Amino acid sequence: MSVVLYHHPRTRAANIIWLLEEVGCEYTLEYVELQQGAQKTDAFKALNTMGKVPTVVDGEVVLAEVAAIGMYLADKYAPGRLAPALDAPQRAPYLRWICYGPSVIEPGCMAKAGNWDFKPQSAGWGTYEEMVDTIDLAIGEGPFVLGDTFSMADMLFGGTVGWMMMFGMLPKKPAWEAYIERLNARPARQKARAINEKIAAEHGL
Ligand SMILES: N[C@@H](CCC(=O)N[C@@H](CS)C(=O)NCC(=O)O)C(=O)O
């Protein structure tokens, strides 16, 4: 049985193809016509009440949220390879950097770009400057956030950092660019990019 990814190539769902390719499980893609509102139909919202992609179905499992999907795929299909064991010391930074993308980087960048009025002591994403310092800590000397070991954390954390740098919402620091280039060089990422571009072309995007 293959994993089904509800997908659109110009969204966060694009990155999930990279995750699936690295994990190496069988998968199929279901294109969601976002422009026509297919994500807000009752049928789709029965899978994901948010009416958003990515959404994944794996047998009886239905899952949304990029970080949750990544952790699930790594634990189920690549334990010990893309996800450190539950009792491994590396499991702690692995979880930290996976959570850091959606809980700090995404809202922190949106807050900065949108000039939001908020109290950094109360907002979970804190100040932009502290976020940048923390990304420096995560990337460090590299080559990956767990040092020499590439993991699902790089796909999720690195995916978010790369996306935000591309949109000018994070600075293009040389060490960060070098990290993203290491991720871009992975064959699975290049394959995923080609798949996304093919689907985009097929749909005139
Ligand atoms: N928190 C969600 C965000 C998902 C999300 O915002 N997806 C966007 C595309 S990048 C979407 O489906 N937008 C369509 C809509 O909201 O109508 C995640 O991490 O998966």
The low-confidence parts are: none
Annotated CATH architecture of the largest domain: Up-down Bundle
- Total helices: the number is 8
User: How much helix is in the residues?
Assistant: 40-55%
Shape: globular
Summarize the structure.
The chain has 205 residues and is an alpha+beta fold. It contains eight helices and four strands.
Please describe what this structure looks like:
- This protein is of the alpha+beta class and 205 residues long.
- Helix content is 51%, strand content 9%.
- It has helices spanning 13-23, 42-45, 66-77, 91-113, 128-139, 152-166, 174-184, 187-202; strands at 3-7, 27-31, 55-58, 61-64.
- A 4-stranded mixed sheet has the order 2-1-3-4, covered by helices on one side.
- The longest helix has 23 residues, at 91-113.
- The two termini are 30 Å apart.
- The structure holds glutathione (GSH).
- The site of glutathione has 12 residues, from loops.
